[in-house]
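Margin note from the TA: students keep mixing up input and output lines. Inputs are the sequences; the output is the structure of the whole complex. Example:
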Amino acid sequence: GENVEQHPSTLSVQEGDSAVIKCTYSDSASNYFPWYKQELGKRPQLIIDIRSNVGEKKDQRIAVTLNKTAKHFSLHITETQPEDSAVYFCASGKGGTYKYIFGTGTRLKVLA
Amino acid sequence: GAGVSQSPRYKVAKRGQDVALRCDPISGHVSLFWYQQALGQGPEFLTYFQNEAQLDKSGLPSDRFFAERPEGSVSTLKIQRTQQEDSAVYLCASSLGADTQYFGPGTRLTVL
């Protein structure tokens, strides 16, 4: 069935360093890839998304890259801050319903 | 504006009881989704509505799970004869058509 693999499951970085989280999807028909940040006990919040017609998108310290051939997409956070500490989920969706398939999450810890 | 709201935020049920979880989507959002999030896992798709029509219920784990959205706005997820394995956070999301999904805070269900 459809699935999304996400790595690593945990990631610790020093404040100011960069963090990279990688996902691989299985359904070649997927065309929408959002990233959500979820703090403990809170709702998932969209931080950035990318559609299949572009290879990269950037929003301040956050960027996402997409390689459709390899079915890989990655989240890059630069100049990390303690408030970036949270669980990050990637997801894939496809046109029409945008039914999301989520990855298993990455717990990011930014050490001050 | 107001985001997606869910009630109750916490629910404790004895095994065998029926529960009803409510979702109020963002006003005007056509699409509504229910997800189940087990501890330490990513959300898993349960069902999808477009207005009042339930277009996809492929993720509902058993016939004990039932969802409705009779007037195309508020939705209720009902679980009959709850089992311990039903314990999870139930997330609702809404979107304007086939677009970015915005999540509610979730209902944490604990079945004793």
